[in-house]
Amino acid sequence: MKIQFWSVGKPHEAYAKAGIEEFTKRINNYFTVDWLIIPPVKNAANLSETELKKAEATVILQQIKKDDHLILLDERGKQFSSPELAQWIQQRANESTKRIIFLIGGAFGVDDSVMKRADHTWSLSKLVFPHMLVRLVLAEQVYRACTILRNEKYHHS
Fold this sequence. Notes:
There is one protein chain. It contains five helices and five strands. By secondary structure, the protein is an alpha/beta fold. It has a single domain, classed as Alpha/beta knot (3-Layer(aba) Sandwich), CATH 3.40.1280. Strand 3 (69-78), helix 3 (82-94) and strand 4 (99-104) form a beta-alpha-beta unit. The radius of gyration is 15 Å and the shape is globular. The relative contact order is 0.24.
C-alpha cells in the first residue's frame, strides 16, 4: 500500500520542513510514502472563494484515480485516537487498498465536488491550524500509527 500526503499551497516552510521530512522518512520503513504539494492556482488573488475552490478541485480531481482511497482533512470530520487511526490504516491494508491519499485542502477548504469524492473526512482537532503545522502533525500521526501497528514503543515514549 502506498500513502500519499497531498497539500494545496506553498512548499514546506523552514520551521516545519525538517520535522515533516523526518517523519516522512520514518513512515517509509512501513509504507511507501511521498508528498504532492499542489501549487496555488494562477490568479488566485483575482478569484472569489468559490471560484478558487472550484479551480483547486479541478486540479485535485484530475490526479485522483478511481481506486484511490481519499481522506480529506477537515475540522468537521471524524476524530480518531492514535490507536483508532492505526486500526483504520490496517483495515485499508487488509482490503488491499493500493493508494491512500490524505488531502489538506486550500486556505478556504475544498469544493463540494472534492468532499463528495472523499471516502472519509478526518479532523485532527476542532481547532484550526496553519497548513504547515497540519502537514507536520499528519506525518507524525501516521508514523505513530505505524509504530502502534508494529507494537513498537514510540507511542508510549
